[in-house]
Amino acid sequence: xxxxxxxxSARFPPLTGVTAMLFRRATTPPEVFPVTRSDAEWRAAxxxxxxxxxxxxxxxxxxxxxxxxxxxxxxxxxxxxGTALFDQAAKFDSGTGWPSFFAPIAGAVGTKADRxxxxxxxxxxxxTCGGHLGHVFADGPAPSGQRFCxxxxxxxxxxxxxxxx
Length: 165
Ligand SMILES: [Zn+2]
What we know:
Strand order of the largest sheet: 3-4-8-7-6-5
CATH topology of the domain at 39-62 and 75-160: Metal Binding Protein, Guanine Nucleotide Exchange Factor, Chain A
Strand content: 15-25%
Low-confidence stretches: none
Largest sheet: 6 strands, antiparallel
InterPro entries: Met_Sox_Rdtase_MsrB, Met_Sox_Rdtase_MsrB_dom, Mss4-like_sf
Bound molecules: zinc ion
GO molecular function: peptide-methionine (R)-S-oxide reductase activity
Oligomer: single chain
Keywords: Oxidoreductase
Order of helices and strands: HHHEEEEEEEEE
Shape: globular
Radius of gyration: 24 Å
Number of strands: 9
CATH architecture of the domain at 39-62 and 75-160: Beta Complex
CATH class of the domain at 39-62 and 75-160: Mainly Beta
Structural class: alpha+beta
Mean pLDDT: 88
Protein name: peptide-methionine (R)-S-oxide reductase
GO biological process, one term: response to oxidative stress
CATH superfamily of the domain at 39-62 and 75-160: Peptide methionine sulfoxide reductase
């Protein structure tokens, strides 16, 4: 047992001011998207249904989107920021009543774990504006085996201009 007598009086001063700030635990910053708007700006720019889905993680009723039956060549773009998300060539009829794709355009979407509704799903959002698009499941067709189950109201369709070559 060592003697615990009064030691040298070299005590460290408490951390204050700038020093305390430097040692504060770093927090994870929220994901920042290239296109960012306030809720009020989004509400003004979007239809009520698109706002509910894109900005409030809503889901449209199945079978309600005209994009379900869209079969022309072209691209499905984000209703929020116009970024091309999916090509018609990757669309398939999943029978769910939601526009479904086996792959997104490279780099167009991001994903994160969604633990709402008592299950763990993978949420899909626009990589440019962060708008919620739908979910991706592992029961899709070849070649990817993935099923991107999207809300039609979160997207718009741009037919390919065939005169464009
Ligand atoms: Zn977007």
